[in-house]
Specification:
It is a single chain. This protein has eight helices and five strands. With 222 residues, it is of the alpha/beta class. It has a five-stranded parallel sheet with strand order 2-3-1-4-5, with helices on both faces. Bound molecules: thymidine-5'-phosphate. Thymidine-5'-phosphate (TMP) binds next to helix 2 and helix 4. Thymidine-5'-phosphate binds next to helix 2 and helix 4.
Length: 222
């Protein structure tokens, strides 16, 4: 298993679950505790990844199928790991990532009703991420109806609408939500599910408590 001095914390969940807000808040707490950290995202955490992101999140929802999507997400991920995540972790910088490989299993596997064999995704994981996984994965769980309406409201202010997945039907979003819960059941040591239908500050406190507990000894209590 590839190990590093820095911690890799990933945030997962459906659309509009508040991942980026929570990452920003946690990043500030960590910095106040003297923990050097960076925030990043998938897809699009690197320059090349931003080009891949554009292909994936804009345009017609049926312009490519789940297999093509999975290949592109893992290509983005490989670049992200090699150029940004592993070098930061090696320097003892903690990395907070808005989405990682669980998104591919939730969206491209569970979302599409298991149309891509899981073993293909697991193989792609091995090739692109090697023997490495997050130290902690926080899954923000929310009724997709609430999350989607937040996402559509946010997109009103975007010049380029990133709504390719939001345009899929509600069944897709329910499938991927259940997929995340299934992933959490399969890997209870790594994944923690939190209720994202809470005020931002309450959810933030849940996240800080979780991170304090998980990495006790490495963090100050403020
Ligand atoms: P974002 O809007 O959270 O930045 O994520 C981009 C979109 O890509 C979002 O709709 C979720 C989707 N996605 C996948 O379908 N599979 C993946 O592996 C990742 C990382 C994201």
């Amino acid at each position: 298993m590839k190990t590093f001095p820095g911690k890799f914390i990933t945030f997962e969940g459906g659309e509009g679950t508040g991942k980026s807000t929570q990452i920003k808040l946690l990043s500030e707490v960590l910095a106040n505790c003297g923990i050097k950290n960076i925030s990043t995202k998938e897809p699009g955490g690197t320059e090349a990844g931003l080009e891949i992101r554009k292909l994936l999140v804009t345009g017609d929802k049926d312009k490519m199928d789940a297999v093509a999507e999975a290949l592109l997400y893992f290509a983005d991920r490989r670049i992200h790991m090699a150029q940004k995540v592993w070098p930061a972790l090696a320097e003892n910088t903690w990395v907070l990532s808005d989405r990682f490989a669980d998104s591919t299993f939730a969206y491209q596997y569970y979302g599409y009703n298991k149309r891509v064999p899981e073993k293909v995704l697991k193989e792609l994981y091995k090739i692109s991420v090697e023997d490495f996984k997050p130290d902690l994965t926080i899954i923000l769980d929310l009724d997709p109806k609430i999350g989607l309406s937040r996402s559509f409201a946010k997109a009103d202010n975007m010049a380029v609408k990133e709504l390719r997945f939001e345009s899929r039907d509600l069944e897709f979003h329910h499938n991927l939500r259940n997929g995340y819960l299934e992933i959490a059941k399969q890997e209870p040591g790594r994944c923690v599910v939190l209720d994202a239908d809470k005020p931002i500050e309450d959810l933030h406190n849940d996240i800080v408590n979780l991170v304090m507990e998980r990495f006790e000894g490495e963090l100050c209590r403020s």
